[in-house]
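Quick one, T. Sequence first:
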Amino acid sequence: MIYENNDQLKKGCESILAYDGGDVRVLNESRFQEKLIDDLIHTVVFSLDPNTQEAAGFLIRRGAAALGILPASIQSLYMALGRKELGGFTVPAINIRGITYDVAQAVFRAAIKGNVGPFLFEIARSEIGYTKQRPQEYTCAVMAAAVKSGWRGPVFLQGDHFQINAKKFAANAEKETEAVKNLIREAIVAGFYNIDIDTSTLVDLSQPTIKDQQRTNYTLASELTALIRDLEPEGITVSVGGEIGEVGGKNSTVDELQIFMDGYREELKKQGEALKGISKISVQTGTTHGGVPLADGTVAKVKIDFDVLQKLSETARAQYGLCGAVQHGASTLPDEAFDRFPATGTAEIHLATGFQNIIYDSRAFPAELRAKIYDHLNAEMKAEWKEKDTVEQFIYKTRKKGFGPFKQELWHLPNDVRDKICNELERQFAFLFDKLKVNGTRPVLDQFIKPVDVPLKMPDALKG
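Structure tokens:
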């Protein structure tokens, strides 16, 4: 059900949720979990009344908090990794582009079964645009999924690739920087207490020295870090990530990491002497976002330089106290590659396109809807069709942009279809949790993460 006005919403919550003065109490947990949470998240995503959407989002987030489900920063756990008090696992960061409520439930189910501790839900600046999921909506979908699946404890929401667009920056640096700053502001309000700054797009390899190449990158990264520190809620240190090499470009080096970090720290001191810096560093070791599609639409095998990845992680920890290096573009790697990430001390890996592929390629996915989406791409994305691309390559590269325009159809697939697709995804999440050695790490999470309950202002629609 979608609540179209505040009266419907209030009536739906009767005897299930009580709210007063910014606080929400769960009166009937089973009814909240079994039905009301479904209605609330569908209202957030699809109601045409902004006031009712806002009220439903408040009830999801504060209702989840009443059950001990809170957005959290992974900072303290990453600092323990940097001190080498922990190790032996790699934290998965999962991008969900479509059917977010259902897919997030599959993640939580796999995590509960595996007694998994640290894992992140993330969405990139570009994904926010083409999947039509603003941070508040994404937060509500993930928190609602936590309620639905029975998860309790911290939930890590991450802004992935909060990226400066190089072309827009060249045209108007102040405007493009402010756009990223505004996104940071929006994300923190929504409970994103983990943010990956990506100014690596501004690395200029034509410059004569590495410091000159990285200068704009580390200078702007320090400026954005200072903004985050100014915005973070009391009691929370947002986990911030930096990036030294754009994914899909040349492989990163230890020299680049050191020069970036030294320059970044120097610039950060100018922003404020006591400001905390980044907790991790994203590097390039041979992957490409989404993988490289071959002429038949299959993905080419990629060779990651694990030796470089290991050296970068070791340097990040030993010299700068970071948790290690972050690997992007990993979800389309062959299965046998994943257990090498914990073995090489990789702190975190980002996973996205592989899950998208499971959705689109599932036998359960309706063929007529798939054809409708592909027809849309053929009609609307012609400008992205490169001359040498086959039809299969074009579709593979652009089908991520079908999630936004077809959000309504995807969220409202028949229950049995969504269940079959999400069961496939759950098996893949379970596989990755096992390979990345995060199964059985829930005690680590409980030891190092103490979530802070950040109050939210009650919407006017719920007052009176």
